Amino acid sequence: MKNASFLVFAALIALLPVTPAPEFWITLANYIGLYSIVAIGLVLVTGVAGMTSFGQAAFVGIGAYTTAYLSTTFGVSPWLTLLIGIALTAIAAFAIGAITMRLSGHYLPLGTIAWGLSIFYLFGNLDFLGKYDGISGIAPLDFFGHALSSGRSMYYLIWLIVIVALIASHNLLNSRPGRAIRALKGGRLMAEAMGIDTTRMKIAVFVYAAVLAAISGWLYAHLQRAVNPSPFNINAGIEYLFMVVIGGGGYLRGAILGAALLTILKDQLQGILPALLGGSGNYETIVFGILLVILLQWAPDGLWPLIRKRLPQRRAIDAPTQAQPLARRAQPQAGSALLDVVDVRKAFGGLVAVKGLSFAVRAGEIVGLIGPNGAGKSTMFNLVTGLIAMTSGSIRFRGEAIGHLPSRQIAKRGVARTFQHVKLLPTMSVLENVALGAHLRGRAGFARSLLRANRKDEAALLHEAALQLQRVGLQDRMYDEAGSLALGQQRILEIARALCGDPVLLLLDEPAAGLRYQEKQALAALLEKLRAEGMSILIVEHDMDFVMNLTDRLVVMEFGTKIAEGLPAEVQKNPAVLEAYLGGIDEEEKVSEHV
Predict the structure, then answer these.
(1) 173/563 Cα distance (integer angstroms)
(2) With a threshold of 0.85, does the pTM exceed it?
(3) Residue 129 and residue 65: Cα distance in Å, rounded?
(4) I need a labelling partner for 451 at 20 to 30 A (CA). Which of 107, 174, 394, 497 fits?
(5) Per-residue pLDDT at 415
(6) Domains of the chain, each with CATH number or no CATH
(7) pLDDT at 586 over 50
(8) Residue 280 has what pLDDT?
(9) Cα–Cα distance, 351 to 360 (Å, whole number)
(10) Rounded CA gap, 334 and 424, in Å?
(11) Can you give 567-589 as a three-state secondary structure string?
């Protein structure tokens, strides 16, 4: 059975309250459940999307204080305060995320610490929230006339929400927006080139995690029947992060494992250490820190990956054999104007990398952009794809100026690319990596993906990815991890991913770099096949043999300027090209040996 381990887990959770388990066990299980809800959201933000957040405890506090204040002061139904708390948290998270999620490096975690502390001190300084004494006398939840006034009566509600959060988050990760979230960790450049609005996606996953934290806070308030700022300080935020790291940063079930281990370990240490050391104090924090360092030395990826290896494995996603085909854009007529680069200049301060370069690509041809190292080829390539903005000049695609558009907008217009240094998500399957290229061709968003109401949309995207893998000859490696492929196959995978976006123009950045002779031959055969199907290709390459035998025209650059343009045979005899490559030695047969 595919979900046997999950069913066993659910059965154990369901049976605990009906056994003669001590009340303390139920209390401990309740807190593990509350922490798990927060940790599941933090897995998405930190473990999957790669954004370290120390401030999740503040969102727990917003959910808790909202229901505490409204229910005790105005008598608002706790079920209504849940919705109000979610709305307030979403608004706060959106405002905070719009600022902090744009940060990178060490500035991002520092930013989360700053707003986490700010919200904590806000709770402790507002008179109507009781300052540091907090709010007491919170009414128990009423569920169809039954008061959930004890830990045992709250147990099933807490764990029902844990399971719902787990399933919904699993649905999200295995979907179009889920692949976009996972792409965030692979770097902004690759994700934006696939058409993903990375800033918007970061804020969306941040808000989702904050909402889960608010729900946990709402449950906490009605379980404790009182709130004060202490459980929502920065130390609690660090502990939530520890739970994710211990369990396994990129794994949803690892969140529950980490929450359980940390909660149980802290409880045991608080009882054992004072007895051993003969005094009171926060000894458990010291010991816990030492144990955490040892654990991360032994299992740097957390504990769940170690357990997962011993469980029966199943594919998270299968390619459907049939699906509604995705709409395809109209291809231009062969020979028509496609890309026009006119007098483009790019300066980085005082350094001019591209000086007045002009060239064109017509529909249905392969154009090579070549030149010695430092000629400005990669800069020009990045200008065309929108990774950097030009200083002056004009870049037009199908008659439209695209020179100042971001890369995701250029991708939307039918320009797809690969990278000089392969940019894949190595732990994700080949199929999912390729499906990432079809991001702009899908429509299902967060809400539909959480509820798994995206089946048709998802089937169409995965079917398209499978077709492109078959097109490039990688269908037999569809379910393998992308990181397990040889370099040549990874470059072919990148081409399949680009083709999944249904491009009009395909831009390849040194696709033959690092490949063996047979791999180059296979790549050349693939590109010739694509040209025969009507694909237009602009290729940056160092291997002269490769481009001479493949391209229809060549553009040669040196020190940011164009020194030659024409048919490969003409370019090979051009004195300026021989001078650039061979220092003036007029032996054209040596060009391919030196480049």
Answers:
(1) 49
(2) yes
(3) 8
(4) 497
(5) 95
(6) 4-231 (no CATH), 337-594 (3.40.50.300)
(7) no
(8) 67
(9) 25
(10) 32
(11) CHHHHHHCHHHHHHHHCCCCCHH
